[in-house]
């Protein structure tokens, strides 16, 4: 066995400083090569409820410099300021194309969209935003600039004629909202680009997502986040859905894990190229309140339904996610009691 000693060119042992310099030179050199072969990821709509947490998780996994956050917002929120940020309007097709080609991006997560409740107020713009951006990204993949795309769908693709209990992967759709129509059309365009042009686009039908790191952006399930802020403030919560409205929901960690697992699985395991059903836990506002009251017995709720009730009534109660389980091993980890415990522990009231 030979012992090697670090020496300088003239044979003297290296000083501590030059050792540090050399170590950091090699670290940069290795990182440069790792980056050369690793994906360069762009997340569009990165400042929203899902984007914020997806950026943080992907940066932890692939390094801060490999994951570029992009959003129409001028400034990047503090929470994702640990890596590159690009102001980007997904509707500016040429600018988006230029950036993706120039930066040699090879994976895009396209999250920019108008959500269910806001889309009902601005139907023309919702259709434009939710569809045009998708074509820009699908076309880039078709031309060979992108290797893989993630585009989220929603339980809003289902409608009043859909079986409500354990809604299957393939069933009657007929959505009754602008948002749902745009998501169903988007799903079918994804499947079309995959079968005609071999585009590797992957998608999940997210249920209502619950998180404490970022606020929701205008959906019908937003009440299930807002309620925790009121509970922490010690105030009564006025719910915009009726007490027995059951909806499929999921804790954000599960949703982010599902997204990354689906993006990392081998091509041949991705059998569904419209969008996968996934399920977390379904509950009503009454059931959620009951669970909160186990920890905060004085918490109170009142109900006054608004236009979002009709949207919620058109959606499933529970989701069958057996196809995602079979194809790529999906499994939810957070049930309602755990979700409530995590939210009440972590929600912080803005000062
Ligand atoms: N949050 C949920 O419960 C949920 C459920 C089902 C599906 N989804 C889908 O997931 C995706 C992300 O949802 P979210 O909850 O994070 O939404 P969000 O509203 O919180 O965030 C959307 C982000 O897109 C940005 N954006 C808007 N217009 C843009 C434009 N022209 N160019 C670039 N960026 C733009 C916004 O500034 C915002 O930061 C959407 O496609 C949504 O339909 C979300």
Question: How does this model look, in words?
Answer:
The chain has a 6-stranded parallel sheet with strand order 3-2-1-4-5-7, sandwiched between helices. It has a 3-stranded parallel sheet with strand order 6-8-12. By secondary structure, it is α/β, with parallel strands linked by helices. Strand 1, helix 2 and strand 2 form a beta-alpha-beta unit. The protein is built from 12 helices and 14 strands. 43% of the residues lie in helices and 13% in strands. Helix 2 crosses helix 8 and helix 5 runs parallel beside helix 6. It has a domain of 234 residues: Rossmann fold (3-Layer(aba) Sandwich). The structure holds nicotinamide-adenine-dinucleotide.
Can you summarize this structure?
This protein has helices at about 15-35, 50-60, 95-100, 115-120, 125-140, 180-195, 225-235, 250-265, 285-295, 310-315, 320-330, 335-345, and strands at about 40-45, 65-70, 85, 105-110, 150, 155, 200, 205, 210, 235-240, 245-250, 275, 280-285, 300-305.
Give the SSE layout.
Layout: H1 16-37, E1 41-44, H2 49-62, E2 67-71, E3 85-87, H3 93-102, E4 107-110, H4 116-121, H5 123-142, E5 148-150, E6 153-154, H6 178-197, E7 201-202, E8 204-206, E9 208-210, H7 223-233, E10 237-239, E11 247-251, H8 252-264, E12 276-277, E13 281-283, H9 285-295, E14 301-303, H10 308-313, H11 322-328, H12 336-346
Parallel strand pairs: 1-2, 1-4, 2-3, 4-5, 5-7, 6-8, 8-12, 9-11, 10-14
Antiparallel strand pairs: 11-13
Helix pairs in contact: 2-8, 5-6, 9-12
Bound molecules: nicotinamide-adenine-dinucleotide.
Residues 44-45, 47-51, 71-73, 88-91, 111-113, 115, 129, 152, 154, 206, 208-209, 216-219, 221 line the site of nicotinamide-adenine-dinucleotide (NAD).
């Amino acid at each position: 066995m030979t012992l090697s000693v670090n020496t300088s060119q003239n044979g003297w042992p290296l000083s501590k400083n030059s050792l540090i310099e050399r170590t950091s030179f090699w670290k940069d050199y290795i990182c440069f090569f790792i980056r050369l072969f690793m994906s360069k990821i762009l997340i569009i709509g990165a400042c929203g409820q899902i984007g914020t947490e997806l950026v943080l998780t992907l940066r932890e996994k692939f390094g801060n410099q490999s994951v570029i956050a992009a959003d129409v917002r001028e400034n990047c929120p503090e929470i994702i300021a640990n890596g590159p940020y690009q102001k980007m309007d997904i509707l500016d097709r040429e600018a988006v194309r230029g950036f993706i080609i120039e930066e040699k991006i090879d994976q895009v997560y396209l999250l920019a969209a108008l959500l269910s409740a806001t889309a009902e107020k601005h139907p023309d713009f919702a259709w434009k935003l939710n569809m045009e951006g998708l074509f820009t990204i699908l076309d880039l993949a078709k031309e060979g600039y992108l290797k893989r795309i993630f585009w989220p769908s929603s339980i809003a693709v289902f409608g009043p004629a859909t079986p409500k209990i354990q809604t299957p992967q393939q069933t009657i759709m007929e959505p009754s909202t602008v948002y749902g129509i745009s998501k169903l059309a988007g799903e079918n365009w994804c499947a079309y680009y995959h079968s005609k042009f071999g585009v590797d686009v992957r998608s999940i039908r997210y249920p209502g997502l619950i998180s404490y790191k970022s606020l929701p952006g205008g959906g019908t399930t937003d009440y299930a986040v807002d309620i925790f802020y009121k509970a922490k403030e010690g105030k009564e919560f006025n719910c915009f859905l009726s007490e027995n409205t059951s909806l499929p929901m999921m804790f954000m960690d599960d949703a982010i894990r599902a997204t990354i697992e689906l993006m990392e699985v081998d091509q041949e395991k991705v059998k569904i190229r419209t969008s996968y059903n996934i399920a977390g836990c379904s509950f009503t506002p009454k059931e959620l309140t009951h669970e909160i009251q186990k920890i905060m017995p004085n918490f109170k709720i009142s109900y006054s339904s608004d236009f979002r009730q009709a949207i919620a009534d058109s959606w499933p109660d529970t989701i069958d996610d057996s196809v995602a389980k079979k194809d790529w091993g999906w499994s939810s980890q957070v049930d309602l009691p755990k979700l409530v415990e995590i939210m009440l522990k972590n929600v912080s009231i803005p000062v």
